[in-house]
Structure formats: structure tokens, C-alpha cells
Write a structure and sequence with these properties.
heterotetramer, A mainly alpha (about 550), B mainly alpha (about 210), C mainly alpha (about 90), D alpha+beta (about 325), A: about 550 residues, mainly alpha, Cytochrome C Oxidase, Chain A, 16 helices, about 0% strand, C: about 90 residues, 2 domains, flat
Chain lengths: ~550, ~210, ~90, ~325
């Protein structure tokens, strides 16, 4: 059947509900807003990726010979700002969360659809500030904006960069408010709290962190702007201020921000693992408690970024202890995912490959977190490539793997099209190896003392940098592949059935892509992950009886 | 009056919509409180580091403006609270008049704040080379003073826009005030602006009044 | 509904609250001129907390039994407390 | 390109302890990771779709006990690692008399070090092996971080405040010194070397240095130049606290309260004298923040300190 024929046969759905630009830019449909967000974060993903590609190229040789040190500093700063606030924080919540949260709980839309659109416009406004920053020559403070460098010394576009982050912060606060209200108020009859899919729990926990942490960042950066622009003394030590206060306030947000990125990723992986292992999730209620525990304990650990900052030794121990405690629920989640595979019937489609990648990489990221929680080890490896490798294992190995996993899992639902499975599996494997190739050498050179944010470096580290840059090239190709086959799939892919993976979950009960109101008939709510009966035998082929 | 006019997309009943709107606003208010948390944190740390500077600087703020403005904001809280109760009881016209009183009080607050700012600037109380106090920490106090009151004034302005929107949209049909649920949310926001001022007042205006502490 | 109870709910209670707020304002303003050392700050903050609670309980109708709203209202102060606790863990042990 | 290096020299007492901690945590992590990895691969192979293996539901009891078991196990392990490294934390002896006290001033993008006898270095630090060293560090502009990988030591260097590092080098050699906290354009050029020498070599090296004034002497000169004695000398007409002998004493402050006259107090008293006035004296001293640089203050403090320490009076 030709593509045109299949298009005419298409049932009414949200994609076909108006095709003018206005029908997209003034939409209040959560699914369309999710697409708008997806377009935004994809653009920024490639902006941030381009910046870091130049950085990796520069680092192939020990001498800083490709770009000037000033340019280099601006490149890694823009990479950090863009990737953290314009890609990772909105990535899963604003796209999949927006698209799926109402459908998964059986609602017609988010609680406040117009507020949702406002979130997107705030994101775009923040993005505009960032683009202005780039046009104005960039910013060189690092994504951490440490004072007094950012307020008294840098002569780059700190003000617009900080303003962009503040504005995009309000976007994530409003998204968080919307998600929390939706989860509380719009669950379909029968959808009790302990029947919620773990993805919904992940989004809910993340929303709590967004709402309670983001405003602190907004105010901190507002203080930076006030000190820099109005010359008000706040953090400036020569006028009595304390730069460590900035670090406390900054990390009060920015450590929980890591959990903003990883909690939804955990939700995505839970959905995928259960579906492709055809198994009820092992320890569902423990998984829920762990998500909430991570979200809450995650607020108590920020000081582990400050072990060498001049913070008191007593505070170091307190934060160290809390950091060990937050490792516990994360570890339990990994055990539970692994145990879910036991007696499963596992197939290795692309989403599952990404989920496997997540399990391995997140485990490495989490375990290296133990090193950083141990004060004497942290003193040696903090501010080195060890830390870079650690948080990329969590944020890229974890969150980005899950993002791609989710994209491959829900793509048929979102677009109504299938993608070429073998290409997708190839990209997943390439991404996994490219990633390890890029970041594993960084653990070693970090331990050997290679400081981060260095434009030129002693020659003995070159071998690791070359390995890392080679891996980054592979990783870059692996990121471009999905762009190509998804673009192809969107126009020419095979029409997707309502439930291509035979998954449970309400989103699979409606058509692909869903109609504007999400459901034609009221969906039937059951326990989540009913992939096999609770009691009794299961077919030896692993099929449901 | 029919519910249908006010019912918005995802909701089945107006009652549920109202609960959700005010719950959503409460969640947002939690976020707003955390917005000020960093300022309160900075204030506490610097006050404990420079107690003398803070007491000396606290004496320089204008307690008359501060106290009158506190009273004004508390009164505006009363008017908007009663407006909501009137609207629910069906006294729409009276409710609207109270909303307009709230707007007037809010504007009065901002005007007085503007006069106060002018006097502060005449006394060179903006941190900089002409700053009159030598004690260490006094400039930090005034940095926080300007930022705290400035951010609060922005909140008052946002609140005024929201209350103004209510007054404007209810000009034809006063039952709109009750029906949409936005009266409740707007009032909650306005009350929070009041609560934050109530906390700022002792920090900025009552500090150091009892003499050389 | 009983007319008096109705009036009560409508405006008597809010107005009484407003009177209480004004009395507290006068009290805190006056007390700030009495030399109490560190007591000044404690008294001023205690009165501010009382005023804030009055606004929250009556004007913002937090006194009505709604667990969800109360939870949301408690979250802000609790998280401020967390911030103070852990920032203090550094500053007061340096 | 020099060859691939997997191990870093352990050149301080601390380095050994950090390495032990590092490799113990590494071993624990490897055990956990390999267990999970083996399980993942085994499950993925055994339970791949289509294999003929039993797939019944798990007994309820088993589910619960395993969950509680590994939760308890993980909590125990986390607390154990924490307890283990805390119990092993060395408490650096501060102000030990045998320490070699070296002052470090960081600025964009340079390390300036000064030895007790006045020898100065830029982007380098020569120290004798086996000798406990105490670095007193401050920054003139932004935050820097003093990082010597071979010593496994790192400490941020803050403007307006002293931070310290105490260590004992154990191996002679030349090691990297890095600035580890991003400090602006030429951050990656803010490097240097730490040269650990035998005591004899160190003595010879020290003799060969152009002998600048000692920190104490510089302080003395500044003391005269800035006219501190006009008020603080015992002969002065102005009533101001006598500085000889003040270091290490407890000062009673105006308005109650006490302060130990340590380095931080002296530094603060020079920069913002009116914050903590000694009881009985009028608050008349102006701030010297604009007149004295960070290194000047270090020198002044060193001089005042020398006036208090028996036998060091020169």
C-alpha cells in the first residue's frame, strides 16, 4: 500500500486536527505542545552537541591550537548551559511527560492546558535569551556561574545567559505545577495511586523537585545579575559577601536538578523493561517508594559538590553521609529492574537495547558516585575528568539513553508510524559503544589528575583525550542516525497499530496517534504491568495465556 | 446560570475544576515561597556575620512607610478575601467593588513604595561609593533591602494585573467571578504577596530600632 | 442557613482577623523600640509568624480541612527549613 | 605523546591513604557491578523470547524477603563505607611547631609562593621531603584551587579568606601543580610544578635564591610605611591596642563577646576594624582594605605574629 493511500485511511487524530501554523502555535492540546517542546529540545541538543564536538576536537592535541582559550571556555559553557537547562531538564518531562501523563492516567488533557502552552512560550523566551547570548559573543563562566568570577571578572554576556536560565526555570516550575495538579486531580476512575505506571510516578517525583528547587536557582541567578549589573554587593568578598553562599544556593537547585533528569528516565526504563521482558515489575511498591525517597533525599546532598570549597569539615561529613543514603534507593531500583528480567520472556527491540544500556551505564555512574561521596577520594578527583565522566554516565548514559529508549518505545504512538527496527538497533548499539569509548577513558585521566575545563594540558594525558575524542566521533554519528530514520519514518514509515508492542498501560488502549481528546471510549483501568497472571502457569514460549 | 460557560477542557464538573485551580495555585505558592528562600538564607547568614552592620543599617529604613504599607497590604488582603466570600454568596456587584478597592490599595502601596525609594536614594542608601554607613555589612543589608522589596514589588504588580483581569472580565457578568475559579486562585496569590511582606517587614524595618544593640 | 452564621462566614470573621492583624502590627512596631537584645528579633519574627498564620488560616481558608491543600502549604516552609538546616551545618561549624 | 600511564605516583602521606580508600571502593564497586552484569547477561540469555524455561510467577514470600534483604544490605554497605573512611580520616595537626609555613597567593593566572625566609617563587614550589608543610593560601581575585595530583590534595583558594593545606611530601620528584577551579580565560595555563627535594638539596636551593626580605621583614616595612605604629606603638598619644603579644590571646570585645586573636582575626581587624572592636578602645581605626593588597596583609599578619612568638622576635 502506498503512503498516500494509508494517509487517506487515517482516522482523525491530533496531528490532523488543523494544519496551519496557528493551529500549532496556539494549541492547548498537550500532545501538540509535547511536539513543540520536542522540536525545541532537539535543536538545542544539536547546538550543545556541536559546541562540545569542537571542544573534543580541540583536546586531541595537548597544546591549545584549534581555538583560542577564550573560545574554548565559551564552548564548554554553552554546552553545559544548553544541555542542562534547554535539553536535559525539559527532555523527558516536557515531551513524553506532556504527551503521556494525561493519557496514562486516562485524562483528556493536563489540568491547565493554557498554562502548559505558556510553559512552552517561556521555554522559547529563555531560548531566545540564550541565542542572544550566543550572538553577543557567548559567555565564559561555566554553566555553574561561580562568583566572584561571574559577577566581578568575566567580561562576557553573563546577564543574558543568566536571564535565559531564570526564564526557562519558570517554564519548568509551571510544567511541574501542571503535572502535580494533573496527577492529583485527573486520574480516571479506578486509577489509584498504586496503579499508576512508574513513568507517571517518575514524572510526579520530578515535578516535586522542579517546583521546590527551581525557584531557588532563579533567585540565585537574579542575585548574580543584581551584583553584576547594579553593582550591589552580595557575594563579593571584597565588600563582605561570601562566594560560598552562592555555591550553597546554586547547588541547592543544581544537585536536585540531576534528579529532575534521572527520575523520569527511571520511569521510562521501568515501562520498557516490563514490556519487553513481558513481566510484572519486580517490587512495584518499592520502586515507588524509591522514586519518592530519591526526590526527597536528593535535597540533602548538595554539599558534596563543595568538599574542597572551604566548607566546614563537619558539613562535609553531613553531606557525605546523606550522599551515601541517596545511593541506597538508586541501587534498589537497579536490583529491581534486574530481577524483573528473571523468568521473563525478553525480546531485544531497540527500546529494550536502550534500557539495557541504561542499566549498565547508570550502574557505573551510580557506583562512581560512591567515590565522590567519600570525602578523601572526592578531594582528589573533584574538578577533574573523573567527575565529568561520572555525571555523563548518569546524565547521558542514564537520562539520554532513557530518552532515546522512550523515543523508540512511544514513537509509533506519537506519530502513528513504525521505524526501521534494524537501523534502530544498530544506532542503539553504536551509541552504547561510542559512549563508553568517550567517557570511560575520562575516569582514568581524572584519577591521574587531569583537571576539567582545561584548554591545554600536559602531554601525558593525550592518549586518553584521543581515545575520548575518537569515541565522541562515534557517538556523534550514533546521535545523527535516529534523526535520519525518524525523519524517514515520519513520512514513509509503515502505519503503526494501536499497540505495536502488546504493552499494558492506557496509552496503548487508544489509537496511534491518539485522537484530540485522547480516548473515544472510557479506558479500562487495571493493575499496571499485567503481562502475566499473578498466579498460575505461563506458556513456555513466554506468551500470555 | 449554567456551569457549561465556565467548564474548561479536561474537567467533568465545575466543582472539581475549582478544587484543582486552587490546589494548583497552592503548589505554585510553595514554589513562590522557595523563590524567597534564597533571600531569607542570605539575610540570616549575613546578619549572623555582621550583626552590627545590620542593626545600624536597619535603623536607616523608613519605619513610617514600612508600617503604613504593611497596614495597606493587610487591608487589601481583607478586601479580596471578603470579595471572594461575597462572590460565592452571590453578591457579585459588592464583590466587584471590593476587588476595585483591592486594586486601589495595591496601587497605593506601590506609590508609597515609590516615594520611599526616592527618599532612600536621596539619602544615598543605594550601595555604592556614596553610601553613608561605614559598618561592614551595612551595604549587604541594603543590597538585600533593594532586592527583597524590588522582587516583592514585582509580585505586587503581577497581583495587580491578575486582580485587574478579574475586575475587567467580570464587568458584564459578575457571576464570572464565582464561576471560573480564577477569583480563588488570584486571591490566594494576593494573600501570599501579603504574607511575604509580613515576613519582610520585621527583617527590613524593625531591625535595630531598640538602639545600639 | 442561619443569617448570623452566614454573615459571620461572609465578613465578620475576616474583619475580626483584620483587626487582630492591625493590633499585632502595632504591637510588633512598638516592641521593636524596647531594647531586648536578641529578643527583639525573636519577638518580631514570632509576631510575623502569627500574622502570616492568621492570613493563611482565615483569608486563605487553610483552616478548612483539606489535607491536600495543607500539604502543599506546608511544603514551602518545610523546604526553607531544610535549606536553613543544611546551610547552617556549614556556617555554624566553620 | 608519552606512554600510557595508569598509576599516579604517591608522593605524600595522604596519597597512600587516598589510594587505599580509592581501591577499596573500586573493589566494592566492581563486585557489585560484575554481579549485576553477570545476572543481566544470564537473564537476557536464558529468558530470551522463545526459550523453553520455566516462567511461573515468583512465590510472594520470596519476593518480599529478597526486597527487604537487599535494601538492608545496601543500607548496611553505605553506612559501612561511610564509617570506614570517617574512622580513617587523619586529623591534620594544625600549628605544629615543625611545620614549614609557606604562603601562597593565587591570582589570575599565576601562583605566587613565599618561603618563611623570604624566598619567592612563581608557579613553582620547592619543598624538602619528609617535612610537614603548611600552606596558607589566599586569592587576589576569583576562586582558584590548589591541586597536586601526586599528593592527592586539593583545596579551593578563596578571595578575602585564608584556606590551608597541611601535608608531608614523601617522595622526591617534580610534580604537577594545577588550578582546579575554573578561574577565567587562561585557567589552563595556571599550572606550575611542585619540586620535592632532599633536605640538603632544599637547603642548597634556598641559599641560591635571591634573598628577598622575609615575610616578617616585609611586614615590618609595611608596618612602618603605613604608619601603624603612630597609633599602636606603646609611645603613641592615640589610645590603640598594643600589638606585641596579642597573637594567640583572647580579646574581649566591646559589647561583650570574645575573640581569639588568630590570623583570621588580625586580617579582619586590618580590613574592617570596626566590626570587632577590642573593649575599651574607641572605634577610630580606618579600614586598610584599599591600601594593602592580599600579600601585604599576609606580611602584616606575619609581622604581628612574630611580635608575639617567643624567640622569633627579630
Amino acid at each position: 500500500m502506498s503512503a498516500t493511500a494509508s494517509l487517506t485511511a487515517e482516522a482523525p487524530n491530533y496531528l490532523r486536527d488543523g494544519s496551519t501554523l496557528g493551529s500549532w502555535l496556539f494549541t492547548t492540546d498537550h500532545k501538540r505542545i509535547a511536539i513543540l517542546f520536542a522540536i525545541g529540545i532537539t535543536i538545542f541538543f544539536f547546538i550543545g552537541g556541536t559546541a562540545i564536538s569542537i571542544v573534543r576536537l580541540e583536546l586531541v592535541t595537548p597544546a591549545g591550537d584549534l581555538v583560542s582559550d577564550d573560545t574554548y571556555n565559551k564552548l564548554f559553557t554553552i554546552h553545559g548551559i544548553v544541555m542542562v537547562w534547554f535539553f536535559l531538564v525539559p527532555s523527558i518531562p516536557a515531551t513524553f511527560g506532556n504527551f503521556l501523563l494525561p493519557i496514562m492516567i486516562g485524562a483528556k488533557d493536563l489540568a491547565f492546558p493554557r498554562l502548559n502552552l505558556l510553559s512552552w512560550y517561556l521555554y522559547i523566551a529563555g531560548a531566545a535569551f540564550t541565542v542572544i547570548t550566543l550572538i553577543a559573543g557567548g559567555v565564559d563562566t561555566g554553566w555553574t556561574f561561580y562568583t566572584p568570577y561571574s559577577t566581578m571578572f568575566s567580561n562576557t554576556a553573563v546577564l543574558t545567559a543568566a536571564a535565559g536560565v531564570i526564564v526557562v526555570g519558570f517554564s519548568s516550575v509551571l510544567t511541574g505545577v501542571n503535572f502535580i495538579a494533573t496527577t492529583h486531580m485527573l486520574r480516571a476512575p479506578g486509577m489509584t495511586w498504586f496503579r499508576l505506571p512508574l513513568f507517571v510516578w517518575g514524572i510526579y517525583a520530578t515535578s516535586l523537585v522542579m517546583v521546590l528547587a527551581t525557584p531557588v536557582l532563579a533567585m540565585t541567578l537574579l542575585l548574580v545579575i543584581a551584583e553584576r549589573w547594579l553593582d550591589l554587593p552580595i557575594f563579593d568578598p571584597s565588600r563582605g559577601g561570601d562566594p560560598l553562599l552562592f555555591q550553597h544556593l546554586f547547588w541547592f537547585y543544581s544537585h536536585p536538578a540531576v534528579y529532575i533528569m534521572i527520575l523520569p528516565a527511571m520511569g521510562v526504563v521501568s515501562e520498557i523493561v516490563a514490556c519487553f521482558a513481558r513481566r510484572r515489575l519486580f517490587g512495584y511498591s518499592f520502586m515507588v517508594y524509591c522514586l519518592v525517597a530519591i526526590a526527597v533525599i536528593g535535597f540533602f546532598v548538595w554539599g558534596h559538590h563543595m568538599f574542597v570549597s572551604g566548607q566546614s569539615a563537619y558539613a562535609n561529613l553531613v553531606f557525605s553521609f546523606m550522599s551515601f543514603m541517596v545511593a541506597v534507593p538508586s541501587a534498589i531500583k537497579v536490583f529491581n529492574w534486574t530481577a524483573t528480567l528473571y523468568r521473563g520472556s525478553i525480546s531485544f527491540d531497540a527500546p529494550m537495547l536502550y534500557a539495557f544500556g541504561f542499566l549498565g551505564l547508570f550502574t557505573i555512574g551510580g557506583l562512581t558516585g560512591l567515590f565522590l561521596a567519600t570525602v578523601p577520594i572526592d578531594i582528589h578527583v573533584t574538578d577533574t575528568y573523573f567527575v565529568i565522566a561520572h555525571f555523563h554516565y548518569i546524565m547521558v548514559g542514564g537520562a539520554v539513553s532513557a530518552y532515546f529508549g522512550g523515543l523508540h518505545f512511544w514513537w509509533p504512538k506519537i506519530t502513528g508510524r513504525m521505524y526501521p527496527g534494524s537501523w534502530a538497533r544498530f544506532a542503539a548499539i553504536l551509541m552504547f559503544f561510542g559512549f563508553n569509548f568517550t567517557f570511560f577513558p575520562q575516569f582514568v585521566m581524572g584519577y591521574l589528575g587531569m583537571p576539567r575545563r582545561y584548554h591545554a594540558y600536559p602531554p601525558e594525558f593525550q592518549v586518553y583525550h584521543v581515545l575520548s575524542s575518537a569515541g565522541a566521533a562515534v557517538l556523534g554519528v550514533a546521535y545523527l542516525l535516529p534523526l535520519c530514520y525518524f525523519a524517514w519514518s515520519f513520512f514513509y514509515g509503515k502505519r503503526a497499530p494501536a499497540n505495536p508492542w502488546q504493552a499494558t498501560g492506557l496509552e496503548w488502549q487508544t489509537s496511534s496517534p491518539p485522537p484530540t481528546g485522547n480516548f473515544v471510549a472510557v479506558p479500562a483501568v487495571t493493575d499496571p504491568y499485567e503481562y502475566h497472571p499473578k498466579e498460575g502457569p505461563i506458556d513456555v514460549q513466554g506468551q500470555l495465556l | 446560570m449554567s456551569e457549561r460557560v465556565f467548564l474548561r477542557t479536561p474537567w467533568e464538573t465545575l466543582a472539581r475544576q475549582h478544587v484543582a485551580v486552587s490546589f494548583g495555585m497552592w503548589v505554585f505558592l510553595a514554589s513562590e515561597i522557595l523563590l524567597f528562600a534564597g533571600l531569607f538564607g542570605g539575610y540570616s547568614i549575613y546578619r549572623s556575620l555582621y550583626p552590627h552592620g545590620f542593626l545600624a543599617a536597619g535603623r536607616e529604613t523608613d519605619i513610617v512607610y514600612g508600617s503604613v504599607n504593611t497596614a495597606i497590604l493587610m487591608t487589601s488582603s481583607l478586601t479580596i478575601a471578603v470579595a471572594g466570600r461575597f462572590a460565592r454568596a452571590g453578591f457579585g456587584a459588592a464583590a466587584r467593588r471590593l476587588l476595585i478597592a483591592t486594586i486601589a490599595l495595591g496601587l497605593l502601596f506601590l506609590v508609597l513604595k515609590g516615594f520611599e525609594y526616592r527618599e532612600d536614594l536621596e539619602k544615598h542608601l543605594f550601595p555604592g561609593p556614596d553610601f553613608p554607613l561605614a559598618q561592614k555589612g551595612a551595604q549587604l543589608f541594603f543590597s538585600l533591602y533593594w532586592i527583597m522589596t524590588g522582587v516583592h514589588a514585582i509580585h505586587v504588580s503581577c497581583g495587580l494585573i491578575a486582580v485587574g483581569r478579574l475586575a475587567f472580565l467580570s464587568r458584564r457578568r459578575v457571576d464570572w467571578l464565582w464561576g471560573s475559579g480564577s477569583e480563588e486562585a488570584t486571591a490566594l496569590y494576593w494573600h501570599l504577596v501579603d504574607v511575604i511582606w509580613i515576613v519582610l517587614y520585621p527583617l527590613l524595618y524593625l531591625t535595630g530600632r531598640s538602639g545600639h544593640g | 442557613m442561619d443569617r448570623r452564621a452566614h454573615n459571620n462566614e461572609l465578613w465578620v470573621r475576616p474583619v475580626l482577623t483584620w483587626i487582630a492583624l492591625c493590633i499585632l502590627l502595632a504591637l510588633t512596631c512598638g516592641l521593636s523600640y524596647v531594647p531586648l537584645g536578641n529578643g527583639n528579633l525573636i519577638v518580631a519574627l514570632a509576631i510575623a509568624a502569627m500574622k502570616a498564620s492568621l492570613v493563611a488560616l482565615v483569608f486563605m481558608r487553610l483552616s478548612e480541612p483539606n489535607p491536600l491543600t495543607r500539604l502543599a502549604a506546608a511544603a514551602g516552609p518545610i523546604w526553607i527549613f531544610i535549606m536553613f538546616l543544611f546551610v547552617g551545618a556549614d556556617y555554624f561549624t566553620r | 605523546m608519552t606512554g600510557m600511564k595508569l598509576l599516579l605516583p604517591e608522593a605524600s602521606k595522604m596519597a597512600r591513604e587516598v589510594d587505599i580508600a580509592f581501591f577499596v571502593v573500586l573493589a566494592i564497586s566492581l563486585v557489585i557491578f560484575l554481579t549485576l552484569f553477570v545476572l543481566l547477561v544470564a537473564f537476557a540469555a536464558r529468558y530470551r523470547r522463545g526459550t523453553c524455561v520455566p516462567r511461573g510467577p515468583l512465590p510472594r514470600v520470596l519476593q518480599h524477603e529478597i526486597e527487604i534483604g537487599w535494601t538492608a544490605g545496601t543500607v548496611f554497605l553505605a553506612i559501612f563505607i561511610f564509617w570506614w573512611f570517617v574512622s580513617g580520616l587523619p586529623l591534620p595537626p594544625r600549628y605544629a611547631p615543625n611545620q614549614l609555613e609557606i604562603h601562597v597567593v593565587a591570582k589570575q593566572w599565576m601562583w605566587k609562593t613565599q618561603h618563611p625566609d623570604g624566598a619567592r617563587e612563581i608557579d613553582a614550589l620547592h619543598i624538602p621531603v619528609g617535612q610537614p608543610v603548611r600552606l596558607v593560601m589566599t586569592s587576589q581575585d576569583v576562586i582558584h584551587s590548589f591541586f597536586v595530583p601526586a599528593f592527592r590534595l586539593k583545596q579551593d583558594v578563596l578571595p578575602g579568606r585564608d584556606t590551608e593545606l597541611v601535608f608531608t611530601p614523601t617522595e622526591p620528584g617534580t610534580f604537577h601543580l594545577f588550578c582546579a577551579e575554573y578561574c577565567g580565560t587562561q585557567h589552563s595555563h595556571m599550572t606550575g610544578e611542585v619540586v620535592v627535594m632532599t633536605p640538603q638539596d632544599y637547603a642548597a636551593w634556598l641559599r641560591a635564591q635571591p634573598h628577598g626580605d622575609t615575610l616578617v621583614r616585609q611586614g615590618e616595612a609595611l608596618y612602618a610605611k603605613l604608619g601603624c605604629g603612630a597609633c599602636h606603638s606603646p609611645q603613641s598619644q592615640v589610645r590603640a591596642p598594643k600589638l606585641a603579644g596579642v597573637f594567640g590571646n583572647t580579646v574581649v570585645l566591646a559589647g561583650g563577646g570574645r575573640a581569639i586573636a588568630d590570623e583570621a582575626y588580625l586580617r579582619k581587624s586590618i580590613l574592617s576594624p570596626r566590626d570587632e572592636i577590642a573593649a575599651g578602645y574607641p572605634p577610630i581605626m580606618p579600614s586598610y582594605a584599599a591600601l594593602a593588597s592580599s600579600s601585604d596583609i599576609e606580611a602584616l599578619v606575619a609581622y604581628i605574629k612574630s611580635q608575639s612568638v617567643q624567640g622569633q622576635h627579630r
